[in-house]
Amino acid sequence: MSSSSSSPPSSPSPLSTSEFIRRRSASMAWEASPSATVERKRLELDGPKEAGRVTSVVRYLANSDFNEHPHPDGEEILVVDGVFSDDSGDFPRGTYILNPEGYSHAPRSKDGCVLFVKLRQYPGLNRRQIRINSYDPETWQSAPDPSLSAQGNVRQCPLYRPLPGDTSQETMDLLELEEGASLTIPVQPAGLELFVLPGAATTTGSSNPVLTASGLDPFLEGDWLKMLETKTPLSLRAMTRVKLYVKANHLGSVAPSG
C-alpha cells in the first residue's frame, strides 16, 4: 500500500447517516501525518485537523518516529500488526494501550506497525493507564458475558471496565468468534462502536433494521462502525473466525460529532 490523498472521512458518504457511521478502511487511501514516516486513515474527525477528536487506522513505516507530544483527553491504541514502541516499552501485535489525560510520549516503530487509534476519547484527570497483551491466554474469558447471548465458541477479553464511583461508564472488549458462532449485543442507548480485526461477520436476520436495510453486510477486516445509540439488539454471526473490538456506553461522556 502506498501513500496517497483522499477525501477526509467527514465528507458526505452513503455509509453515513444520522444514526450511524460506517467506514471500510481497507478501501481508503493512506494520508500524510505530521511525521513523514507515519500515515493514517481517518475514520472520523471532529475538530481541528491535528487537534480534534479522531479515530484512525495508523501505519508506522520501518524506523519511524514522532516527536514527544502530550495527549489531552487521553489516547487509546490497539496494535493491529507489528511492534509499536514508546518511552514505556515495546508493544507487539494484540497489545491494548489506554493512556490517560496528561500522558506524554515519543512513539516509534523499528520494523513498522499498524494501529487502531482513538485520540481525545478518554477524558478526565487521574484515570487509569492500562496495558493488556491480548495474546496472553489469561486475559480471555472462555465464557463471555451472559448479556451477549453467545452461541457456539465465543471468547471475551475485557479491556476496560469502570470502577465504582467513576463518572464515565464506557466499556471496551475484544470478542473472538469461531466460524458459525454468534452473539447478540444488547441495546446500547449511550453508543456502540465495532472495529473488525482478522475475519468476517454478518448481521443475522433483521436484528438491526438500520444496518440490514442499508446493505452493510458483511463486516470485513478493517471495517469500523459507530452507532450513536442502538434501539434494537445487534446480532452477529461469524462467517470465518473473527475478532472484534467493541466499545460501548461511551457517547454520553464523549459527545458525538455533528
Automatic annotation (TrEMBL):
<dbReference type="InterPro" id="IPR011051">
    <property type="entry name" value="RmlC_Cupin_sf"/>
</dbReference>
<dbReference type="InterPro" id="IPR014710">
    <property type="entry name" value="RmlC-like_jellyroll"/>
</dbReference>
<protein>
    <recommendedName>
        <fullName>ChrR-like cupin domain-containing protein</fullName>
    </recommendedName>
</protein>
<dbReference type="InterPro" id="IPR025979">
    <property type="entry name" value="ChrR-like_cupin_dom"/>
</dbReference>
<feature type="domain" description="ChrR-like cupin">
    <location>
        <begin position="24"/>
        <end position="122"/>
    </location>
</feature>
<dbReference type="Pfam" id="PF12973">
    <property type="entry name" value="Cupin_7"/>
</dbReference>
